[in-house]
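Molybdopterin molybdenumtransferase
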Amino acid sequence: MSLVPVEEALRRLLADTEPLSAETVALADAFDRVLAAPLAALRTQPPFDASAMDGYAVKAADVAATPTKLKVIGNAPAGRAFQGTLGTGESVRIFTGAPLPAGADTIVIQENARDLGNGAIEVLEPSLEGRHVRRKGLDFNAGDVLLEKGRVLDAAALSLAAAANHPAVAVVRRPLVAIIATGDELLPPGSTPGPDQIISSNAYGVAAAAQAVGARALDLGIAPDQKDAIASAVRQAVEAGANVIVTLGGASVGDHDLVHDVLTGEGMTLDFWKLAMRPGKPLMFGRMGAIRCIGLPGNPVASLVCSQLFLKPLLARLGDRPFSQDLREATLMTNIGANDRRQDYIRARIELDNHKLTATPFGTQDSSMLRTLSDANGLIVRPPHAPEAKAGSTCQVLMLR
Ligand SMILES: Nc1nc2c(c(=O)[nH]1)N[C@H]1C(S)=C(S)[C@@H](COP(=O)(O)OP(=O)(O)OC[C@H]3O[C@@H](n4cnc5c(N)ncnc54)[C@H](O)[C@@H]3O)O[C@H]1N2
Ligand code: MOO
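Tokens:
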């Protein structure tokens, strides 16, 4: 049986995938969302020439030679401009952020002035024209594009959008992933399992992988190995508006591996099934209209490695979020035998040694072993039919954290 190469599988999975439509969300809910359109300033900032310091607004010509005495004719706190116009020999007490009064052209900081009482000050140091004045539009002008489409809204972007007077922003909808675990042997964490049962773990890691690229995860629980039960969960996913349906387990060739039949029965057109990779060989992908269906293998490590390689890029594309695998070169620390036809993803500990990375694979790589996946911070990538690799040779690693 021919197995689909990993790169081809990813290409087919991403084919014709456009970002989801936009929705408007309040700025307070917009953290880590992706901007759906360029964001232009609705106003100019600062909207007036403003003082950058606490002190006195003066005419530079009046303070060219110091010390000198000036009259204080008014007050200008932030938010309340002085309404008059400064004449020669006059100043206005001013605070950071207040509009520069008409007639003034510089600020003397209060450290360089002495309050003489009775509405007079002595200026101790000269101040050149424009000193400590923030010009109107210093930050941005109305109409300037401040944030590009596709920008992931972080702290600075959110404050900037607010400063530009946007109470809400248009962002790309977050993809919804419905996750359906399958298997008679599974019980949720916290249960008291019978002798033949295990705890269902995959959904938690898969949901986390989805959330890591900005998607929403809907855990539809555990369906027993019965077509009706799986079909009913799939229908629930469709009704919930899932963009992606992920099934866990039941993807292989066993008598209880029903996922393929159920999904096709519910209208999925199969695109590919069974990849040249380890772990993750039974991965299945198809489309049910606009909904993408990914049948992840049941083995826990396979489900998470496939989430990293396929689910994350798909969700990132749907959410218009930048995503790339963190691939690096490292020095292999042990010998590895020649590879077969499946691209291998070997759990390894990647360490920095004298500015270079080293990769030490874990001895046992069974795809049921979550602990080694959790202990690993990278995967050594071995292409199909790679020859034996000796300790000291260079290998490619996919960093996980
Ligand atoms: N004759 C063959 N047998 C198998 C093949 C094959 O090619 N020929 N492929 C093997 C590979 S590779 C994998 S991976 C597994 C995956 O098979 P399924 O996707 O059908 O998964 P299940 O049989 O349902 O479960 C496998 C294993 O994983 C456990 N499991 C399932 N779901 C969960 C979950 N949500 N949380 C935790 N653990 C889960 C399940 O109990 C089994 O132990 O098939 C091989 N067999
Ligand atoms: O995906 Mo299976 O776990 O390749 O062994």
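The pocket of molybdate ion (ligand 2) is lined by residues 278-281, 297, 299, 302, 367 (CB under 6 Å).
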